[in-house]
Fold this protein.
Amino acid sequence: MLWGGRFEEKPDKIAIEFSSSLKEDILLIKEEILCGKAYAEMLCRINIISLVEVNSITEALSTIETEYFSDQWNPDPKEFEDVHSAIESRLYELIGSTAGKLRAGRSRNDQVVTSLRMWCKKTSVEMINLLGNLQRSFVNTAEKHIETIIPGYTHMQHAQPVSLAHHLLAYVEMFERDKERFSGVNKESDCMPLGSGAIAGSTLPLDVNFLKDKLGFSSLCENSMDAISDRDFVIDFLNGCSIGMMHLSRFCEELILWSTVEWKFIRIGDSFTTGSSLMPQKKNPDIAELIRGKTARVFSYYQSVITLMKGLPLSYNRDMQEDKHSLFNSYSIYSDSLKLMKGMFETIQFDNSHLLSLMKKSTILATDAADRLVLKGIPFREAHDIIGELVKYCVKNEKGFAELTPEELKQINPVLDKSVYELFKLDNSLSRKKTPGSPNPSFVKDQINKWKSALI
Ligand code: ARG
């Protein structure tokens, strides 16, 4: 017990269990041990503890870490409030009263936020790496599909043809922004709150610059009250997870649609799909559905922490302990989803010949045809009407633009000459695009090369 002195009665068992965060914050054990060791060394440098004591504390902290990771020490949430109390109690068992010396000038309020910042720094780098791996997969597949034409949709209706590469590279852009969000979190988490104590710093001459360097922080937190009660970096981490999951979820939605009998664009590998216990023909895109489904939970974790913080007066309030449940669960869902998305994506087979026949049956080149008439000097409004008539003809006769003969075209309107007929051959439809950022294969190739050198 870290605070028993003024109390006459033992805490209620249910109250301890209700208030324990150990199940969650045990995840901070590595950071806690690192902080403990650095703190002991610092206390020795300022002559508060001896070298012998530092060695005994350091050795015992290493023992606790080994014991925990080899399942020899498993602190009970019914017994301890949090990871800090659990470690301290084990330290007492191992080295007796020397353990108590480590508490000088330190509060769990600055302790927990220091470990949390270290964890966010470390984990944001992990997220950036996972996103980079996913980008590489998308770019590699895109490179094989620069000329694979698929329908581009607006309002879920055929809009204009794009390449599969162009579609995939849109996600690579999103993943890049996701990485930038996590590098922001990494920077934001990079200042050290130790020395702030419970709220107002310490009268002990703590060498906080030594701690900062030892624990790998770039700077010190500037205000002790803000230092112990700021959880903006947690909310930013959760925001990164939420937007990242939203991106994955949008792609999952596409994969789910694309894998239906109606769409038939793709087949997802067996290892990322499941069957039905009743319907033998079924192959369900469960992983894509679950990433989409778990996105809701990640959004709720963001909502939970930003709401948790909104009514809290300065400075530390116990409510803040609830941040860890949301943070660690979001991390776990988002990092798993990134790994699963990469695995699943790499099993996907695209049905190129089906895509081609679908495109031949479509009237998706209507805008390009109208543009063609504009180049012949016809006002766009008029061109729009002429091509509209052509679409009407195609719908009535169940034909795609690519299936029309030059004679048919001429009959519908004499301005629909050979050049329009040529335009309806799909092969060159993308290379006619003039604007940067469009699916013109030569622009897309440049993009792929840019990504390949950026993602080494
Ligand atoms: N477990 C708490 C948290 O995660 C830290 C402990 C601070 N508690 C206290 N009574 N000062 O926020």
Notes: The chain has 18 helices and six strands. The domain at 109-350 is CATH 1.20.200.10 (Fumarase C; Chain A, domain 2).
